[in-house]
Design goal:
Number of helices: 3
Strand order of the largest sheet: 1-2-3-4-5-6-8-10-12
Strand content: 25-35%
Radius of gyration: 20 Å
Shape: elongated
Distance between the termini: 63 Å
Helix content: 10-25%
Largest sheet: 9 strands, parallel
């Protein structure tokens, strides 16, 4: 009757000690079958479930049943990774019905079409969200933020599309972007935002990951922002309220325009 904590890599013969399986190696069917048995047998609640070892495209039926079970039995922390391809596989919209989630990390998915998400569903308890190697449109990212009213930490890593991030959140405290492609970042209204980290973010149109930031960062209302970086001189236009700061490289001349 104890709350379930399940990490599927622990079901491997070596307990997952060898690390991630190489790309192209089929996912262990015994692990997928064991996950199905465990989720069905345990009465709940589910404290923590990490599902990272199954190629979801090969097990769509099991995947749909897993999500239904996770929603029904109130999972709080979920790491859900499609191992490893195709990256274009859509995340089932039924996951948005999981109101119990407090931490959610998604990897190697395309975010669902928001039109397929039932009206009124949200993540009312979600405080931490990580998106890794995700394909997402602007409206899908905005939809996630809108439906997560207490979200405090957002990580976007290895995003596969040049989405535009328009940040409106009265709860977010930390935003971290790494190895990703964003056309621009517009912090419209984020009164609790304290930290905005950027690292190895690609420039629009280059398709390459560099040490550079996006070409435009606009800070509107973020009165508690204390940490902002990494910003590469000569590559980024930084706007704070009505002031635009541009560093002209290689002279490092700073131009401030009101």
């Amino acid at each position: 009757m104890a709350p379930l904590s399940l990490v599927d890599s622990h079901l491997l013969p070596d307990g997952g000690a060898a690390g991630q399986l190489p790309i192209g190696v089929p996912s262990p069917r015994a692990v997928t079958a064991a996950v199905s048995r465990i989720l069905a047998a345990h009465p709940g609640p589910f404290r923590c479930v990490h599902l990272t070892r199954s190629t979801m495209d090969e097990h769509r039926g099991e995947m749909a049943r897993w999500i239904d079970t996770l929603v029904a039995k109130g999972v709080k922390e979920l790491v859900f990774v499609n191992r490893p391809w195709p990256i274009d596989l859509r995340l089932p919209a039924t996951l948005f019905s999981c109101a119990s989630l407090t931490r959610l990390y998604l990897g190697v998915w395309r975010l669902p079409d928001t039109a397929a998400v039932p009206r009124g569903v949200s993540f009312p308890n979600l405080r931490e969200l990580g998106l890794c190697m995700t394909v997402m449109e602007d409206h899908a990212l905005a939809f996630l933020l809108e439906r997560s009213p207490v979200l405090e930490f957002l990580l976007i890593m290895w995003s596969q599309t040049g989405a535009r991030l328009r940040l409106v959140s009265h709860s977010l405290r930390c935003l971290q972007l790494a190895l990703t492609c964003l056309q621009y970042i517009d912090v419209v209204d984020a009164p609790r935002l304290e930290r905005l980290f950027l690292r190895n973010v690609s420039l629009p149109g280059t398709g390459k990951f560099t040490m550079n930031s996006p070409s435009r960062i606009k800070i509107g209302r973020a009165p508690n922002l204390r940490v902002l970086g990494y910003i590469q001189p000569g590559q980024t236009e930084l706007g704070i309220s009505n002031t635009v700061i541009v560093v002209v490289y290689p002279t490092n001349l700073i131009c401030i325009c009101n």
